[in-house]
Structure formats: structure tokens, C-alpha cells
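Field reference: "sequence" (input) and "structure" (output). Example, Flavoprotein:
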Amino acid sequence: MSGGGRCNFTNLYVEAEHFLSNNPHFCKSALKAYTPEDFISMVEAHGIEYEEKKHHQLFCINSSKDILQMLLTQCSDLGVELRTSVEIQKVLKQAQGSSEQRFELLLDERDQKNISCASLVIATGALSIPTLGGSGYGYELAKELELPLITRQASLVPFMFSDEIKDLCEQLSGLSTPVTISSNNKTFEESMLFTHRGLSGPAVLQISNYWRPGDVIKIDLLPNMNAQEVFIEEKGKQSRLTLKKYLNTFLPKALVLQLESLWWPSHKDHALCEISNSELKAIGANLNQWSLKPSSTEGYRTAEVTLGGVDTDALDSKTMEAKEHPGLFFIGEVVDVTGHLGGYNFQWAWASGYSAGLFA
């Protein structure tokens, strides 16, 4: 699914600033222990072709299936036993004393006998996209063992609207345009996509990490351009262009048509030089700071990741082991570490898994 089916498997520049967590320093040890270069070396060793795209994102040239097959091959070469379609009913922590059989996994009676183990790594993912297997099982297990959890919410997720903006988005569904988007003192410059439910695209997915219900988002439809100044300057040239015709140079025509009805319906046929400075400034302000309040997100159904998770204070940052439960490890998305869009969440999965694997 990631990268349109070509798997955005990592990013060349993975710094802690690209991750969200109650403890922003927690991810540093794992990311340093297993770097993008380490994963790239494995990709190259398996002859998988890849390419770098914008923002240093790496994608398979062919298909994400190449990465899956690589991982399966690695498992086979190392003698890993894979058991699928096995339902775990409960995880029991054994009494103190034995380091060889710390945990027992109680399986559905239709499955094979229960599994006992010295080390147990929880890599169950999170709540996002349940149709692909997302679940809260890892959180349930953490609760049973009294590990603290940070509040979860859908993230890297499209916004929905319930007012007239929804109608506008429906009219423009499928149209994409570059924007700068901001919320809660965080800003991204990416493309934005109109959908029949609201707004999506990289810019929106990125800012959804920082948006909270009730918050406003601000969208600059003309990044790197001060619309107020440009309009006044153009007016000074006695321009006979209408606003629509002038803006068609910078924005998709369909978008300009909708904005015309929204912001300057009484000036549809007026030349720039016929519109007052105050009105031009008001329209320019809207173009550079379009304030919208989403009614909600599309939720876990389409969210690429889940924000929050197992509190990192309960885990060792170098090993991913639960401090109060020797032999129990939590890795990947189930932990309260969430990356930006662009291969960061995959790199966190690889890095946290590697760190746990060294000690499990």
C-alpha cells in the first residue's frame, strides 16, 4: 500500500525531528543503531531496484512485493518458522524463576499446542486500516500487563468537512495543487488533494499529525507569493484583467472558479483596477491564509498510522524491552513513536525491530 504500491521503504535523512512522541528523544538510539544505509545494503544485496524521489524518499522501482519477498527470503535463510492464521487467546506471564519460559501463548483450541518462550516481541502494528489487519491487540496486551498507554488517534489521515467547504471539495474532487499548510505552529509545503469527502494529499496527511479536533488549519494557496502585494501592484498597472483570469495563471482554473463564487462573487466581471484596495487585500489574505475547521478526519479506516501507543517511559530505548517485564519487547507502530509521511515509519519499524532483535 505504501508509496502507491511501490513501498516507500525508507528515507535517506532520518532525524528525530521527523517523529512524534511524548518523549522525542526515545527513538534516537534505535535510529542510530540501524540506519537507512543498513536497510539499503540489504535491499541492494537482494538485487532490488529502487529510486530516490522528492524529500529523499526511496521507492521500489517495481513493486512493494520485492520488499516482502526479500524479508521472507531472509527469514527462510535464517530458519525462521512462520505460523499464520493462528489466533492467540491470551498471553500469560510465567512465575519468576525461569528465564527460559517467561511467557506462554494460549492458542485457539483449533490450533496447535500452546507456545512457551523466553522472549516475546510485540510487533502487531496499530489500529490503522483494519481491513488490512490493523488492530488494537498490542494495546490490549500492554494494558493486561499494566504498561501505560498514550492516547491513540488516527494520523496521516484525510480531513472531512460538514459545511459549504464539503460541497466545494466535492466539486473539485480529484484536483491537486501545491500549498503550504499549517496547524499548531507546524507547517508543511506539499501538494493538497480535493476529495469528495474533504481534503487529502501529502500536505494534509502531514499536518493531520498535529491537528486536534476543533483546531483550525490554515492553507496558503499561493506559496511564496504575497497575494495582497501582487494584487495592488497589478492594479497599479491599470490592469483590465479580472481576478479570475489573473489567478488562472497561478492556480487550476476549476479551483479559481470555485474561489470566485466563495470570495468575490460581486466582482466576477470587474477588472482588477475596478476593485478597491481593501477588497483586494481581503481576497489576497484569504488566498494566503485560508482558514478551515475540519469536522473530523476519515478515521482509522484510511489513516496510514496511529498516533500514540505504548508509553516509551515503560521501555528501554536501546533494547525496546519493557522495564518491568524482562523478555517482553514492543516495536514499531504499537509504540508511541510516529513518523512523518515519507518512509519514516518504515525506518522506525526496521530500526526498533533490529534493536529488539539484538536482545530478544
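The chain has a mean pLDDT of 95.
The longest strand covers residues 186-194.
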